[in-house]
Amino acid sequence: MNQWLMYVNGQWVQSTSGRTYSLINPATRAVTGTAQQGGIADARAAIAAAQGAYKGWAGLTAKERAAYLSKLADSMEQCKEELAGLITLEMGKPLAEARGEVALAAEYLRWSAGEAVRVYGKVIPSSSPDKRLLSVRQPVGPVAAITPWNFPLSMAARKIGPALAAGCTLVLKPAEQTPGVMVRFMELAHEAGIPAGVLNLVTGHPQEIGEELLSNPAIRKITFTGSTAVGKQLMKAATEQVKRVSMELGGHAPLIVFEDADLDIAVAGAVSSKFRNAGQTCICANRIYVQRSVAAEFLERFKQAVEQLVVGDGFEKESAIGPLISEKALNKVRLQVDEAVEKGAQIVTGGKAISRLPGYFYEPTILTAVNDTMLIMQEETFGPVAPVCLFDTEEEVIEQANHAVYGLAAYYYTRDLGRMFRIYESLEYGIIGCNDAVPTAVEGPFGGMKESGIGREGGPDSLADFLETKFVSIRM
Ligand code: ADP
After folding, report:
1. What is the CA(230)–ligand 1 centre distance, in A?
2. Whose CA is nearest to atom 19 of ligand 1?
3. What is the mean pLDDT of the chain?
4. If 0-12 CB within 10 Å is exposed, 13-18 middle and 19+ buried, where does residue 287 land?
5. Helix, strand, or coil here: 395?
6. Which of 36, 40, 91, 146 for mutating ligand 1's site (highest number of atoms within 8 Å of CB)?
């Protein structure tokens, strides 16, 4: 049984209340350990630590900060199996996917280390001959990061990397379901010699910790990945002290298959984009649009591919799809499928929870005859269900694809060169995959438009969200 502590000011601590809560393996419903039920006082102590360490950390050279991040990335790679195992234990994804997440997380740290030394300023020609004008960039200050359970390590690394590279210190609140992998990460950070207070981890009560992170003036910025509903609450609270915000929120990605697509690539892409992580990624295809002339063939091949996906415990080698995170998540998927069927949707394959397995498993499912009145066409599903719609023209499908409050990711499949350009230009989404089901890369900016968020993580400008611009006018 794991008994995770919190990490505050370089020390391993229990919650001030002395309370803990149980962690559940979603594949078996068995208790795997406990984590600290932290609250306001714990968040406050962590913030004080981050504030105390700030000047020292920001005062290091970028090269020194980069060296710490690279060292931490190395240790993560050395502990890849252990970290991946914790991810699978806590949230259920297949071990191969968890290993990929660890590798990606280490890459985020390396990318940030590389960018740390490239925080350039500007010397601006002045219109007054006696003045010299400078624009310099400085860290925003201590940062709060709140992260989700679906990528418990890489989402945190995507925030920690650029924050630390920029010179910020940080308080992390991981999702309540997945604290363990981040506790191990903090142990590695400690061993890598990252000074006390630079990184702090508080687990427990989301509302209490969130409230302190937002109301405490020492925290200058909040970076959040999670649901649009919680993101909006945090943004409202952040306005009180005009805290900077970065929000990576929900999505409802369209995936469009045009008649000129390579259907092998489109089918493989639809399977990968929809069913990776059991459909629990914010960039998962949530609606599949297929041009009418190729619909029958696409559906036939898609069904065959989906029926080959093996569902099971993520620790079993053959499992391609693990459990959903919780009973609540399973019920949400059930509700969306049942409601669609009541309104006339047809089940091509799947369509129910898997009762022979002990965890929160749902069959990989394809629905047809869906329409926009159904919940599944409007709300994020976060489960292994693919609703497929037919379309006739490019104009029609673009309008349908853009008809959403979300604007995170969108995918399309075509071999027509003109269409490749036309479509991405007209899609109102922050991340676009053209013949590419995995458009996430450390070197690319990740983030959404509309209600999917504010700001971008990763890519050439990844440190920008953690920097302030300071203008200096020197009169000689
Ligand atoms: P999901 O529904 O996928 O769990 P959430 O947005 O609820 O997504 O959770 C994402 C992160 O936000 C988690 O770390 C969770 O604990 C945290 N969280 C949820 N509610 C609040 C809140 N009111 N204040 C601060 N953090 C919160």
Report:
1. 6
2. 206
3. 98
4. buried
5. helix
6. 146
- Please state the rounded mean pLDDT for residues 216-244: 98
DSSP state of 195: P
What is the distance between the alpha carbons of residues 195 and 179, in angstroms, rounded to a whole number? 21
CB neighbour class for 390 (10 Å; exposed up to 12, middle 13-18, buried from 19): middle
> Do 273 and 307 contact (CB within 8 A), yes or no?
no
pTM over 0.70: yes
Sheet containing 285-291: order of strands? 346-349, 365-368, 385-391, 285-291, 253-257, 409-413, 431-434
Residues 6+ apart with CB under 8 A from 325: 26, 91, 92, 149, 150, 177, 280, 360
Of all protein residues, whose CA lies closest to atom 25 belonging to ligand 1?
A: 210
pLDDT of residue 305: 98
Length of the chain: 476
Question: Going by CA atoms, what residue is nearest to atom 4 of ligand 1?
Answer: 148
Name residue 368's amino acid: T
Q: What are 243's strand-pairing partners?
A: none
Give pLDDT, residue 362: 98
Rounded CA separation 183/239 (Å) = 31
CA angle 140, 184, 225 (to 5 degrees): 45
Instruction: Give the model confidence (pLDDT) of 141-172 as tens digits.
Output: 999 999 999 999 999 999 999 999 999 999 99
